[in-house]
Specification:
By secondary structure, this protein is an all-beta fold. The strands form seven sheets. Strands 2, 3, 4, 5, 6, 7, 8, 9 and 10 form a nine-stranded antiparallel beta sheet that branches. It has a six-stranded mixed beta sheet with strand order 21-1-32-24-30-28, with no helix packed on it. Strand 8 and strand 9 form a beta hairpin. It comes from Streptomyces dioscori.
Length: 441
Amino acid sequence: MGSGTRRRRRWAALLGTAALAVTAGGAFACPANADPQQVDFATHCVPPPIAGIPPIDGTTTAKITVDDAAPKVGDTVTVTYTVVKPAASNPVDIALPADIMTPTGKVTLGGAQSGDLTVAGPKKNDPVPGKGAFPSFSMTGTFTVTAPGSITLSPGDYNIHTSYLLELDTPCTVSTPPAPVSETITATGGGQTNNRAISLGTASGKPGDSVTVTGSNFAPGAAVTLAGRAGAAETADKATVTANAQGSFSGSLAVSDKATTGVVAYEGSAWSDDKGAGPAAYVVIDDTPLPAGSQKVNSSVKAGTLSMTQAGDTVELAAVDYGKGGFSRGSLQTVTVKDFRGGPAGWSLTGKVTDFSGPAGAKIDAAKLGWTPVCLTKTGSPSTCQAGSPGAVGSAGATLASTPNGTLTGGEFTVDARLSLNVPAFTPPGAYSGVLTLTLT
């Protein structure tokens, strides 16, 4: 799977044998993630001219969350910008019904990686009384980690678009940018890095409007395709630009497809994780008048995450006799994988084990642990789970299960394995245990 779509969850389970081992309490390990910090910042909001009221200088309360606070270079991080309390309110006396607000905005990156990330939210809100306060709303976007170290995320400018009777915008800018840091992630070095990046001149527009796309770190002189995205699929909206000698470009893309949710840029004529950037969030605001007596019904499907859970954290293997040895057998605690990302990437679940430590420094080599994987796919899942090959696990590791890349992937999967520890005949009696670490990418 491409580096831009990887997600990591690391879990550990203690393994032992019933007669040879007294198992310690197991635990799983995953990256620490502090609670997001809610911040306040001064904001200048400009009501639409029809309201006939002056700009509003107030305070916005916001917070930023991420789906991975400890990514590797090359990983894609999903960012959610939540405006808890907007500085602006409904500028008119007319009450606004539910689900007519479309928010867009930017998140400012700092530290090891700099730039602005565009974010957009669904058309979803509670009813707003005339001159009443706007409700809280959330916007999401993604960026690819290009450098190791601490990366700060601060809330930026945002715009509230309302579609009721009239199409109106209330842009709100940070009075003294950047706003306070709301979240910090720590990136570690990864494999080959794709440093290509794009930013958009605006995060929304009407059907047919053009958006300015600015790119950096592309191959000098490369032909770059700009394209609209509707989830994991490309739309018919495309344009071509040429990167300059420094690998940068600025081009224009006309976006007509109302289903577009983002914009990507890539070298050549077909998308590649290694030679592409984005998607940058973009919302097409449909202002097509409805026929008399009609009601427009909107809905959305929200992308989720790749995650895993396990039924327990300790495995008890059967006893073997001193002098005879043989296979100490048992079953892996059942692992459930849920892939709700809704993109083109598959996943891989691998495992590796430490040596089994026993009394007085005695050990059983990690290569002595083998498994026979089994993987079941829940009915209706777009992807089909493939079990790994039977064999040794060892300290180098082996694949437990996986799903392939595809046009649209996802689903729920149950992963099990029969475990067998080949204990040498005259292994000293006593307790032996090792740690099996499962990694989902």
